[in-house]
């Protein structure tokens, strides 16, 4: 089984492959190709593309551990761990899996545990839920001297992979390891940050430090911000950090413009359009309404038993830019309202550049509470962890409009935008 899988992966990567030449030497192994995306390949080259094209010079003589998941793929959709393991110019000795696991089989709040990867024989360490000294001890025991991070983010503060990045940076600083971040696009584009900024009393695994709800940064830019603003506070010193930027990516690009393949970063993130909605509609995790888990349109379908057409009518009347709402009924196969009919809305984003996911999420919360008597927040105030502040919950409970709620976080957002500006690397 292992041999046949390795053979299949190698065959899949053959088409469109080009040679990569290390400085001063002939290439010993191919660089992943750009085939399958039309003439000339994708416009965007990821951080891994550039690392490989340079013959892995940044990793020469290093014992490498890779923090990644199924999104760590080349342009011809080979996994970077498989590619590097097959290449004599780089020595990978360990893999570290985040939430959902290295191979991505676990649902939200789960991981795959520690195991051996059957394709490469590499040890896979479960890092989900681990931070500080506990994670630093894992890095130390693994025998790595350089930690490489390559995971596709979705652009929302409460998506846990950027906090895996932060936790691993802190742990690497504590353990004295080098840290290399391979950049990938923000699927929401790199437009201005939006939404409330996390207040430290609300810090958790879905938000450790003051970052806006939709941060508008790539993972490499976030790594620079984390190192410049936060890591020393947690570890006593900054981490030895290097980033490998993309080429061809522009701040205004949505994911579809990149030409890169989309691999679901988690089981309920099937498309880039899901990510676009998620930055706002994930707030429904903090309520008793379904956020669409257990359907084919997670975070685009929202609802509960007892909701009817009035919700779609109410939110459409607001004239929110870039989006329309359809009266919808659905039966989730798991999660909230499993096996029961929920009524609500489906988001139809017709102009993704005009669409503001955070403002839309707030408007949906406000109108849901207005039209459905059964509306309730989760008893653990999870909404405060998602928004990073009690302000959203308390203002909505007090009868504030969506515009009033949005106005309430502008001072904190302006301060974050000024800090963010120092770490942007794409113009």
Features of the shown structure:
single chain; about 425 residues; alpha/beta; Rossmann fold; Aspartate Aminotransferase, domain 1; seven-stranded mixed sheet; three-stranded antiparallel sheet; 14 helices; globular; disordered N terminus
Describe this protein's structure.
This protein is α/β, with parallel strands linked by helices and 427 residues long. The protein has two domains: 2-34 and 43-257, Rossmann fold (3-Layer(aba) Sandwich), CATH 3.40.50; 272-415, Aspartate Aminotransferase, domain 1. 30% of the residues lie in helices and 15% in strands. The protein has 14 helices and 14 strands. The protein has helices at residues 2-12, 47-53, 80-85, 132-142, 161-175, 219-229, 231-235, 272-281, 310-316, 357-371, 382-387, 391-397, 402-407, 410-421; strands spanning 18-19, 30-31, 63-68, 91-97, 115-116, 123-126, 146-150, 178-182, 194-197, 212-214, 240-244, 301-304, 323-330, 342-349. The strands form four sheets. It has a seven-stranded mixed β-sheet. Strand 3 (63-68), helix 3 and strand 4 form a beta-alpha-beta unit. Helix 4 (132-142) crosses helix 5 (161-175) and helix 5 (161-175) crosses helix 6. The longest helix has 15 residues, at 161-175. The radius of gyration is 22 Å and the shape is globular. Mean pLDDT is 90; it is low at 1-39.
